[in-house]
Design brief:
seven-stranded mixed beta sheet, FAD/NAD-bd_sf, 19 strands, binds flavin-adenine dinucleotide, about 25% strand, single chain, alpha/beta, FAD/NAD(P)-binding domain, globular, D-Amino Acid Oxidase, Chain A, domain 2, eight-stranded mixed beta sheet, oxidoreductase, FAD binding, Flavin-dep_Halogenase_NPB
Length: about 400
């Protein structure tokens, strides 16, 4: 006789930041949760620079203490460099209330800490278990799972949260994929022993450098607390396709063109695999459906420029957890107005600023010397992840960025 199918209140696909935080928040409400994770942790993931806004969710999920105990690099802002120009935003001097500092984290360690904390709180996580199908089943969802050792089985969930990142499990299975309106771009990145010896270099900030000749090409330098750093470059796909070297050759060639960045990294040791990732911007036709919702990268992913990915993932986790709680308590939440619309408020803000970065409206604002302290505080808030604070005029109406860019250009 077949084993009975296991029943859960909520099954979460993926144990990254969205999966760990959502499962913890729902576990706090007393639900029976199962997280299915395809890989074994620790595993590499890109996306190391956090934004202060996500500290709120780490607190709510009772994970902040464990993160703080882990000696990650402190972060208090974002610095920008273009030729001889250098500007920085200090997140502690921002318009919105809330955390003004956060961390730059090696994601293999960080994601494992979050998942371990969720497990300690009582969430069941199965590593090496991949979701391979999802069907509606009476008033539930039935997921087919395959484990590393080839075992196949089914589970039933009253609700499924897809936190599978670029795995995009439900968007693929339920035909929800929608192309992003953002231009396809590619990234080359690695970890280095940075050996930076300039005393003026500020390890408490991410450094974004604009290529001296191509305004659409930019580099990130995210220092860690152990003398290492994440280094990456983003460029239009067609530009990178003209580079014929290995990923390491191409990255080093681009860094050598990076003006001051080349000097900052003059002693760097490239001792780790160089990876490439392209066409990552993606969207879906809907962020929710019958007994499921899409979180983090499984929903919409914009662009790496403002390090917004983990913050969007955790915000989606927080919103989805409270809406699932309503639904499983017998209320009938309106997923559009209680989940999709609020989540999209912040995504819309970031999207306007992403578009403004690549068409140079926002680059001109960043490097303008004449912006007022008030404007600087409002921009700082958005860069710190407070893209949902509609008291900020640039969140309430993100298209105000165009007027601001015009003013900065005229000065
Ligand atoms: C080049 C680049 C740079 C970036 N830099 C930053 C940055 O500095 N800061 C920032 O905040 N964000 C950054 N991001 C974005 C960030 O990486 C993501 O937004 C973030 O990791 C999303 O979290 P998540 O929980 O949605 O998914 P993930 O962290 O990707 O987790 C998804 C999990 O689902 C699992 N999974 C996949 N398929 C299945 C399956 N079939 N069954 C079970 N499990 C499955 C995966 O193994 C994975 O562990 C960057 C992105 C890119 C492309």
């Amino acid at each position: 006789m077949n084993d009975p199918i296991e029943q859960f209140d909520v099954v979460v696909i993926g144990a990254g930041p969205a999966g760990a935080v959502s499962s913890s928040l729902l576990n706090q409400k007393g639900y029976r949760i199962l997280v299915l994770e395809k890989q074994h942790f620790p595993r590499f993931s890109i996306g190391e620079s956090l934004l202060p806004q996500c500290m709120t969710y780490l607190e709510q999920a009772n994970m902040l203490e464990a993160v703080e105990a882990s000696a990650f690099q402190h972060k208090n802002g974002a610095a920008f460099s273009r030729g001889e120009e250098y500007e920085y935003f200090d997140f502690r001097e921002k318009f919105s209330a809330g955390w003004g500092t956060t961390f730059q984290v090696q994601r293999d360690n960080f994601d494992k800490i979050l998942a371990d904390e969720a497990q300690k709180q009582g969430v069941q996580i199965r590593y090496g278990h991949s979701v391979i199908a999802c069907d509606p089943f009476a008033d539930k969802r039935q997921l087919s799972v395959q484990s590393d050792n080839g075992q196949r089985y089914q589970v039933h969930a009253k609700f499924v949260l897809d936190a599978s990142g670029f795995g995009r499990v439900l968007p693929k299975m339920l035909n929800l994929e929608q192309a992003s309106t953002l231009t396809p771009r590619q990234s080359i990145f690695t970890h280095i022993q940075d050996n930076i010896d300039q005393p003026e270099y500020d390890r408490d900030k991410i450094l974004i450098t604009v290529h001296p000749l191509h305004h659409e090409v930019w580099y990130w330098l995210i220092p860690f607390s152990n003398g290492r750093a994440s280094l990456g470059v983003v460029a239009p796909t067609e530009l990178l396709e003209t580079m014929l070297g290995s990923p390491l050759d191409n990255l080093q060639e681009l860094v050598s063109q990076g003006g001051k960045l080349a000097n900052i990294l003059k002693n760097a040791q490239y001792d780790t695999q160089v990876r490439t990732l392209g066409s990552y911007s993606c969207n879906v036709t809907s962020l929710y459906g019958e007994n499921y919702a899409l979180l983090g990268n499984a929903g919409e992913f914009l662009d790496p420029i403002f390090s917004s990915g983990v913050t969007i993932a955790m915000t989606s986790a927080g919103l989805a957890a409270s809406t699932v709680h309503k639904q499983l308590s017998g209320e009938q939440p309106d997923w559009e107005s209680e989940y999709a619309e609020p989540l999209k408020t912040g995504i819309k803000t970031f999207k306007e600023f992403v578009e403004g970065w690549y068409d140079q409206r926002f680059q001109n604002v960043v490097f303008s010397k004449t912006k007022s302290d008030d404007i600087t505080r409002m921009i700082s808030s958005i860069l710190a992840g407070y893209a949902w604070d509609t008291k900020n005029p640039y969140v309430k109406n993100p298209s105000r960025l165009s007027t601001l860019a015009q003013l900065c250009q005229d000065d």
